[in-house]
């Protein structure tokens, strides 16, 4: 059985080489079109034709099957069934190497903090201590925060750093409340994924940053970007639009506000602080102003940067 297989294996007329199963050597025979019985022995001078005289081309193809065709995808042309002749690897590449990448949703991604984390305890204490409105309380569910590595790679954070260098190099932490039209942050997952709804202002800020052009002229100090160090005041503006949930969200922001201009009365037409200042703050009513709880206003988008997110549940008050 083995000898017959070796004889058939040696009958390839295209190669012209045969294997002598007696001596275990390979040699070139001038009568390669004959059978192995006629050409395996070099001492034979006559050839004898049998039914195995001619090697079948189909049998040779069975031993060496052609490789499966590889489909290549062109860069600027429709996909052909085979790679065209003359095409190089710079023009075509295999389909299996194409890995679709998910578009980056946020310039500054935020990740959920562990309740035992030091940053979680810091911002939770800041949130609870600055909740000053009587008659209502809040219970924190999740806190999301951007890492230092993401802050170094973010383009918005770089613009914020440039605005910080023009000042004294210090910033203040403030809260910002805005409308939400999705369930951002309520799932408690590792990362947050902003939606694309036009009515979801929170997701719009996370994806594109603050935009002063969208500010209304109804503010006390003109069309600016408002924030506050009082978390309960930011909660007033943290509204849910067309969603059924008992949880709310406010942003943790860094603000270039080390040189505030203190204003006693309202100035609805103001467009920027005076020359020596970089922000505007309201004087409280205990000091002769008209505001009960503090607020900070900046007129440049690069002077405020959202770095975190607080997901909380209102208790004893849920308008």
TrEMBL record:
Provide the E.C. number(s) assigned to this enzyme.
2.4.2.-
Cite the entry's keywords alphabetically.
Glycosyltransferase, NAD, Transferase
Recorded hits in InterPro entries, A to Z, give: Poly(ADP-ribose)pol_cat_dom
EC supergroup of this enzyme? transferase
Pfam families per record: PARP
What PROSITE patterns does the record tag this protein with? PARP_CATALYTIC
Q: Please give the Gene3D superfamilies that the UniProt record associates with this protein.
A: 3.90.228.10
One GO MF annotation is: NAD+ poly-ADP-ribosyltransferase activity
Q: Which residues form the PARP catalytic domain?
A: 99-319
Its protein name is Poly [ADP-ribose] polymerase
